[in-house]
Amino acid sequence: MTTLQASAQKQLRQMIESIERLEEEKKALADDIRDKYNEAKGLGFDVKTLRQIVRLRKKSQTERQEEESLLEVYMHALGMLDGPLSADAEAAVDHMIAAE
Amino acid sequence: MTTLQASAQKQLRQMIESIERLEEEKKALADDIRDKYNEAKGLGFDVKTLRQIVRLRKKSQTERQEEESLLEVYMHALGMLDGPLSADAEAAVDHMIAAE
Amino acid sequence: MTTLQASAQKQLRQMIESIERLEEEKKALADDIRDKYNEAKGLGFDVKTLRQIVRLRKKSQTERQEEESLLEVYMHALGMLDGPLSADAEAAVDHMIAAE
Amino acid sequence: MTTLQASAQKQLRQMIESIERLEEEKKALADDIRDKYNEAKGLGFDVKTLRQIVRLRKKSQTERQEEESLLEVYMHALGMLDGPLSADAEAAVDHMIAAE
């Protein structure tokens, strides 16, 4: 035997061609997404913030608030924030298991 | 004014929702591609090599051969290959502008 | 000529070996960074939040506050926040060039 | 309690500062690697092929040959190669568990 059998050759070609079609559709969607962000930019919106919004909307409000509170606690501890901690962040500290 | 105007709010929401729909479709396609590779794996094909094939088929045969020849020249110079250079690789050396 | 000249061969080998040494040192540092995060995790810190802190500290406080305010404006417009906008976010709205 | 204890604050600061130092060193090495590739380019070498060489040298010769043979078998089955399979690629076919 010096090459793949005809049936395996056919399977291989079908697999590759399916994948290529799917890759093309995926690329077209990636282009559409980029265009949509550009359209938003043209309307005066900030693209970086929009991307952040899209990421944040995948999380629940509770999840977002917990993350935000923990970030505030760390930032406060490092002197990156002016003023006192918010009530949410204070509650986060109370639940933390940090090193003593 | 303490918040975005109603029209801008509406635009923002439409933009974000469009992007989210496109992102979902893109994710579904990424899942389909992964499934297709898994199906190929189940048939006995090597996924890493299939991915390489998909990359290579985006290039012309000439482009592939030139890249392959150049790689062969470098590998030969570094002692990574047994035997002499192929005719294609020799031709590549003749065209190279390498430091003397 | 059937291969690279001796001088080019030598240069090629030196280049590749230099790059490999640098890549090794870079990989060792990546490992050190991962170890440091694991150590922090062992002390009770949240790794994801630590990574966010490292990113945020590369920015000035002004830059961080502007980004945070804009994010708050967009989140508020999308109904992702309870309560009114903060004073900073209101100021951000006043400076925005959003579509009408 | 309204904030992290002093000892945890100190640990947090030390962790973050260690990570930042390591990140800086890592970035400096990434810059050195980029400079080295640019230097190689200035000497007439092809950067893309050099990167491929660096990847390939992490593998054993046996591993490289097996991958190359399998790639050749698939490319041949897809009509991407002129001429017959090499002896190595024929041997690879004999060992393959491909779909019938």
UniProtKB/TrEMBL annotation, chains A, B, C, D:
Domain of life: Bacteria
Signal peptide: none
The UniProt record lists the keyword Coiled coil: yes
Domain GapR-like DNA-binding: 8-79
Gene Ontology molecular function, alphabetical: DNA binding
Transmembrane segments: none
InterPro entries according to UniProt: GapR-like (IPR018753), GapR-like_DNA-bd (IPR046367)
Key words of the record: Coiled coil
Coiled-coil zones: 5-39
UniProt cross-references to Pfam families, sorted A to Z: GapR_DNA-bd
Recorded family membership: Belongs to the UPF0335 family.
NCBIfam families: PRK13694.1
UniProt protein name: UPF0335 protein W911_15315
Provenance organism: Hyphomicrobium nitrativorans NL23
Organismal lineage: Bacteria, Pseudomonadati, Pseudomonadota, Alphaproteobacteria, Hyphomicrobiales
